[in-house]
Automatic annotation (TrEMBL):
Entry superkingdom: Bacteria
Natural source organism: Candidatus Chaera renei
Higher taxonomy: Bacteria, Candidatus Saccharimonadota, Candidatus Saccharimonadia, Candidatus Saccharimonadales, Candidatus Saccharimonadaceae
Name of the featured protein: PRC-barrel domain-containing protein
Classification via InterPro entries: PRC_barrel-like_sf (IPR011033)
Length: 189
């Protein structure tokens, strides 16, 4: 199931062991190398450590009631997550990031993104267009497969006009039609 990033904030985190709400999700921790949500910052009164992180591998189920985990031990302080420390240090935020195409034309900024809840892979980017380009369409939806590069400054996607080229322009005739050839009348001089 695809959900927007706004639907992933303030989601209750429920313990399967006790059946109580342990905390709520906050800002996601995104690995920019694979565009994957690896963890969520958590906040709540029952937490032992502030801030705490919930690794996405520890989420048993994501449903309409919230994210279900085994027990409160799944919510850990950032210092305990040694393997994720490199990703946490990136401090990568996808929202507000500039989007350009391969010809270096500015397409807009990331306004939202859609994530698949079973794998927490970011599948689509919702891009807000600049004012002049927004006259035709105000938002642009970019699929994960169109992304070429993710950097600290911008996200590069495939050049959009390459796909909009008419089909007839891509094919060249194999043979000429003799009936369409111009007749060269011979003139007597």
């Amino acid at each position: 199931m695809l959900v927007y990033s706004s639907s992933l904030r303030n989601v209750p985190i429920l313990s399967l062991q006790t059946g109580t709400v342990l905390a709520q999700t906050g800002q996601p921790v995104i690995d920019p190398r694979r565009l994957y949500i690896v963890a969520f910052y958590c906040d709540g009164p029952l937490l032992d450590h502030h801030p705490s992180l919930l690794h996405t591998d520890d989420i048993r189920e994501f449903s309409d009631v919230g994210m279900i985990v085994n027990h409160s031990g799944d919510l850990m302080p950032p210092d305990d997550l040694v393997r994720l420390q490199e990703v946490i240090d990136f401090k990568f935020n996808l929202l507000g990031r500039a989007v350009i195409d391969t010809s270096r034309a500015r397409l807009g900024t990331v306004e939202d993104f859609a994530t698949e809840t079973s794998s927490f892979m970011i599948k689509k980017l919702s891009v807000r267009r600049p004012l002049l380009k927004s006259l035709s369409t105000s938002k642009l939806l970019i699929d994960r497969q169109q992304i070429v590069e993710v950097s600290n400054d911008y996200i590069v996607v495939r050049h959009e006009t390459a796909k909009q080229q008419p089909i007839a322009a891509r094919f060249k005739p194999v043979a000429t039609n003799p009936f369409r050839a111009k007749a060269n009348p011979q003139t007597d001089t």
